[in-house]
Every structure is written in structure tokens, then in C-alpha cells.
Amino acid sequence: MGVLKIAKNKSLKDMLRHVPYDRIVNEVAACCMKAAYDLPQDVLNKLKEYLNSENSVRAKEFLRQYLENAEIASTERMPICQDTGFAVFFVEMGELVKVDGGTIYEAITEGTGKGYKEGYLRKSIVKDPIFNRENTGDNTPPIIHLKLVPGDKISVVLAPKGGGSENMSQLKMLKPSDGKEGIIDFVVQTVTGAGGNPCPPTIVGVGIGGTFEKAAFLAKKSLLREVGQPHDEKEYAELEQEILKKINASGVGPQGLGGDTTALAVHIEKFPCHIASLPVAVNLNCHAARHAGFEI
Amino acid sequence: MSLVSLSTPFDENTVRKLKAGDQVLLSGVIYTGRDAAHKRLCDLIEAGKELPVDLNGQTIYFVGPCPAKPGQPIGSAGPTTSYRMDAYSPTVIASTGLRAMIGKGGRSPEVIDTMKKYGCVYFAATGGAAALIARCIKSCEVVCYDDLGPEAIHRLEVENMPLIVAIDSEGNDLYQR
After folding, report:
1. Is B154 a catalytic residue?
2. What's the confidence (pLDDT) of residue A1?
3. What does the pLDDT look like over B65-101, one tens digit per residue?
């Protein structure tokens, strides 16, 4: 795995697959619009499931409005939420692909600008965090997480991330002695402490282990999983359920105005850890959990 | 809990009658404003200068809408999280006679104290129901701060915008229940 094997009598040059720059630009632009307009089916299904199980009348009405809103957005081709987010891309790039006419970073950046302009999506990015908060005008730059993989394909997933739920995310460097209980307390406190701010019911992404930045990345990456799909390992799947149950017993509810539905799912991703550390990151996604992707 | 149809602008008496939990259908003119616009308004207030918009009896909706498609008055336009305006709202309420705010999520004790003192109400709109809410908005024009893009202050005409009184002028707070 990962070692490039060059076939006999073939040079590396012959094996490279060429992808035109403009093709990536156009695919990315279309992807930005699709993500903003179409709430994925797994999210819709989860909202319907919780609409059935919710007991509060007000909470039920919010869940019903989310579903109606998603339908209007998809039919009218308009954004589900006015916060069309920071464009966060997860890209897997085959080591045998060559982008002709520019770099993959440039192509995704240009495609983002094009998609946000042509799709009438909101431009939410300012040039500088402190001294010059002037809007960049085209929602660039995007955030690009690039991973080199074997093969000759490019796979792109876009998860536009709104500010409201991102602002309520947290990271804590726990001690190994804090263990599972420490993790549960931190995650539950992060979600319930956020109240109505992140637009609950949220999807709770939890990254455990690795380093400071690895935990944050894992928390974000876990949000790409199909909503409610359990972790592969039984212990972690059980931990996800235990945390979800505690969160939904809090009574925070949709919009923070009470109810049984505070989170739609808890997703954990983990990584090996330093002997001294237990990093835990919680990345919240609002109920409008948008993502779209393509493969070239 | 009751369902009330209301029209802007408000007088103090109308605002004082609203109770946390009331469902409201709001019609009339409201103004948009979020982080950057609030900062500018407060800078002007502190400097003792005139504001570019008269907010006496008016309503501010914390929103940064999407651009309008051709033929539409506005793009998707749901509420943004209100706590970010907590630093500014007391100054705005006390200085302008603002009677109502629309947003999502809880407010600080300082904001609630000012609402009680001056007679102001806080409505919750449904966060993330931005396409649904856009249907209630009949017109949209920029009043000032066009350079802020989505953060400019817009004048909206709304019809039957569905809201909930989340915090009333007596300080009753649905987020604390």
C-alpha cells in the first residue's frame, strides 16, 4: 500500500492520468450549490425518525419546519440555511493523477468562488480575523484537507460549515486518568452548555486521541459519516449511544426551547495516543448537516 | 400560550403585553443587523453621532441573508445566533427605543435587564429554516453599510413571519426552563 509500482516497460509519465483544471473547477462549483440546496437523505431520515419519537409539541413543530424547509430549498434551488458556511473540502488524490493547468488547491479555490457566486450562496469569509474583517466577496479561501492515496482518481467531499455550530465546538486536553467518564462529561457539557446556539438537534462529532490538531480533525471528519451509523468497534459504538442518551435526556431540545431531541447522533473517531495525553475534541454540526461530493 | 398577529412598529404597551411562549405572526417593516452593523451603530452612539436608521419602536432581525436570485426579493434568510450581539444590544435598546429583536439562542443577563427596564421583547425565529422564512419576506432593500455585504442593514417587509416570544419584557426566559 502506498508504494508506487511502475509496470514493466511503462514510465511513470505513461501511467499518469491527466485531469483538466477546468473540470475540477466546474465539479466543485456544482458541488457547492448541491450541498447548499439538498439536505442529504440520511439527515432527512434521521429528522423524520426523531419527529416520530419527540414528545414536546413545540419541538415537534421545529422538526416539522426543518423538513418543510429542506423540501422548499431543494425544490426552489435555494440554500437550506442562509449561512452557507466555510467551504471545507476533504480530498483524496490518487498519486497517479496530474491536474493540467494548475494545482488542485487552485482549482478547488476557483470552483468555490464560482459556486458561491453562481449559486447565490452567502459569502461569509473575511480577509483577516482581527485587523481587516473585510469580506473576500466570493467565500474563498476554502479549507482543503488533502490526502494522497494509491490510484488515479480524485475523490472530493465538501462539508460546508456554518459559524453558529462551529462556534460552540470545543477541545480539551484531558488526563489519561480522566478516562471514559471524563470524556462523557466533557462532551455532554459542551453540547448542553451550548443550549440553542448551535441550532440543535446537532450531530456531535467527537475526536479522541492523537495530538491537539489530530483530535480536532477527527471530530470534524466524523461528521461526514452517515448520520447515526455506529462506530465499527463495539466499545466505541456503545460509548456513542451512552453519550447520545445523556445528551437527549438534558431537555435542551430543538432550538434550545425544550424537548427530547437535542442531538441526532454522536459520532466518535479515534487515534492512538501519547502516554501522557487524552485529547478530546467536540465539533458540533447543526441540524442542517450538509455535504456533497464527486469523484473524477 | 397564545397565537397573536402583530404589526410593526411597536409601542411599549404592545411589547409589555407579550409573554414568553406566545406564538406570533409578525407583519410590517423590520431591519436586519448583525455583528459588524451593531459594532458600527454602537461606535456612533458612543461618539454621540446620529444613526443612519431610526430604530425608535422598531425591530432588529439578526440575519445575514443570502443574495436574491433574479426575480426574488431576497435569498434564504434565517436567524443567526444572538449571543454575539449581547455586547451591543443593551446600548442599542437604551439609546434608540428599539422594541424588539429576532434571533436564535439565549441572551445575557445584561440584555434581559435592559429589555425589562426599557420595554423590549426577544423573539426566536427557527434557526436553519431559512428558505421557509424567506417566503415571509416580501421586499428587501439596503439602508446602509452596503460595504458589509450580507452584514449590511436591510429594510425588510415581512408578512406573517412565525416567531415565538422567547424572552419577554418581564424577563421570563424560555431558555431557562
Report:
1. no
2. 45
3. 999 999 999 999 999 999 999 999 999 999 999 999 9
Last residue within a domain, chosen from A103, A130, A160: A160
- In chain B, which residues have their Cβ closer than 8 Å to the Cβ of A257? 124, 164, 166, 174-175
Q: What is the mean pLDDT of chain B?
A: 96
Q: What is the pLDDT of residue B1?
A: 57
Contact A72, B131 (CB under 8 A): yes
Residues A91 and A150 occupy one common structural domain: yes
Q: Which of B15, B32, B38, B96 is catalytic?
A: B38
Same domain, A87 and A207: no
Set of cell numbers at residue A240: 456513542
ipTM > 0.90, yes or no: yes
B103: contact with A, CB 8 A cutoff: no
